[in-house]
Amino acid sequence: MPEQSRVWAEARSSIHPIRVETAGFEGELEAEVMEGQLCLSMPTRIELAVELLKSNNSLVDAELRRKLEARKHPRIEGRLREARPLPGSRCLLRGDLTLHGVSRSLEVEVLVRAPDPDTLEVEGEKTIDMRDFNLAPPHFLIFKVEPTVRIRAKLVGRRRASNAPHNRTGE
């Protein structure tokens, strides 16, 4: 459910933190019971349009779109390659994040829950270094931005009527 799914990103600068909050994930969440616990499964994939990233500061937003080359690379994409259940409704996910046309393998621990039989929620957090995606940290007139960005996401998917009981989607 794109309107309920969110991503928050925070980067530090020499003056103040830069925060981005955005709804609008699209994609497909697949889940199954593994070792007695709900966990994501293949072919989970998510996408977010770069143009949706907003910080409530038009100068920061323009620089963000420029740095990300939004016209050339309009989408950020995540694809799951492997999932393993962990204690406490958590899963360890391994997958690929494509940002700015560069794909990198990442590992992240997430919380997976089904608040009702038709809804799946996934929450996780990861710190990335923008230089790993061939992105130079932005700098504005009088301040510089640190290269690490803390990203937190909450994905909410609803079951499709035609899918098996454990399949849910964010589309």
Relative helix content: under 10%
DSSP strand tally = 11
Q: Which structural class do the helices and strands define?
A: mainly beta
Count of separate DSSP helical elements: 1
Straight-line distance between termini: 6 Å
Shape: elongated
Notes on the protein architecture:
The chain has a single domain, classed as Beta Barrel (Lipocalin). The protein has one helix and eleven strands. The chain has one helix at 58-67; strands spanning 6-13, 18-23, 26-34, 37-49, 75-86, 90-99, 102-116, 119-129, 139-140, 143-159, 167-169. It has an eight-stranded antiparallel beta barrel. The longest helix is centred in the middle third of the chain and has 10 residues, at 58-67. Residues 163-171 have low confidence and may be disordered.
Please sum up the structure shown:
This protein is mainly beta.
Task: Explain the layout of strands and helices.
Layout: E1 6-13, E2 18-23, E3 26-34, E4 37-49, H1 58-67, E5 75-86, E6 90-99, E7 102-116, E8 119-129, E9 139-140, E10 143-159, E11 167-169
Features:
171 residues, mainly beta, Lipocalin, 62% strand, disordered C terminus
